[in-house]
Design brief:
Layout: H1 7-20, E1 32-38, H2 44-59, E2 65-70, H3 73-76, H4 86-99, E3 106-112, E4 114-115, E5 121-125, E6 129-133, H5 135-144, E7 149-155, H6 163-166, E8 171-175, H7 194-206, H8 210-228, E9 236-239
Parallel strand pairs: 1-2, 1-3, 3-7, 7-8
Antiparallel strand pairs: 4-5, 5-6, 8-9
Helix pairs in contact: 1-4, 2-7, 4-5, 7-8
Length: 241
């Protein structure tokens, strides 16, 4: 590509290729499409979880397509990926929405990063990028894509604060923590957050139910937090119809 291509132009090109590579939906079959969003470049855990999600969704769940947005140095070098920004998320969701049957198929959106007590998701790739995603912004991005059946999973501190805005009769919302609690397991020593390890790795490898994985994860996380002497994160779930 041209050397003077901006990061935003590069991202558009990569996203267009990712969306074009999505397998077409199959009429009469409930197909799964997946978007992963690793929002913070300062720790490898977030990239690791989204990379694992890609493998798991493709190999174990037979997803028709996976689009991953990753803030990490690797995304600009050895493993080119579109960066995790709100604008790129909007583009990815719109592309997936066009590929899928919006009434029949299912979207799994998995977001992993730091969250604030004010219920904002911290999108960070210093010095390139710093922004904050609020519950209404996330809801609007999903609604604008026209995707009906949505599973939204947020692995971040205080992520339960997103549930009131994301709640919907056709949505399953899972968060790593209650609105007023931190979640644990990030940091340079960790391969995955507590929630990522418990829900994504342990839960979804034991079964194929997103709700069943939550039941497994809550028990594991509670044990780990007790062992570590942490204040319980209290993961949350909101099940639509």
């Amino acid at each position: 590509c041209a050397e003077d291509e901006s990061v935003a132009q590069r991202d558009r090109r990569l996203l267009a290729a990712d969306v074009a590579a999505l397998a077409p939906q199959r009429p009469g079959s409930v197909d799964l499409y997946v978007v992963g969003f690793a929002g913070d470049s300062t720790e490898d855990v977030f990239r690791n979880e989204v990379a694992y999600l890609d493998t798991l969704a493709s190999n174990r769940f037979g997803a028709r397509g996976v689009v991953t947005l990753v803030n990490h140095f690797d995304s600009l070098t050895s493993a080119p990926r579109p960066l995790a920004t709100l604008e790129n998320l909007r583009i990815a969701l719109a592309g997936v929405g066009k590929a899928m049957d919006r009434d029949e198929d299912v979207l799994l959106l998995y977001l992993t990063m730091h969250g604030t007590e004010d219920h904002e998701l911290a999108v960070a790739f210093p010095p390139l990028l710093e922004e904050w995603i609020t519950p209404p912004q996330l809801r609007t991005a999903l609604d604008d894509a026209g995707i009906g059946n949505r599973v939204v999973v947020i692995s971040a501190c205080f992520s339960g604060g997103f549930i009131p805005e994301l709640r919907d009769s056709r949505a399953l919302v899972v968060t790593a923590a209650r609105a007023d609690r931190a979640s644990f397991g990030c940091g340079s020593e960790s391969n995955a957050t507590y929630f990522g390890r418990a829900w994504l790795v342990d839960g979804l490898n034991r079964g194929t139910s997103f709700i069943g994985a939550y039941d497994i994860a809550t028990g594991e996380i509670s044990n780990w937090e007790r062992e570590d002497g942490e204040v319980a994160s209290l993961p949350q779930i909101d099940v639509g119809d």
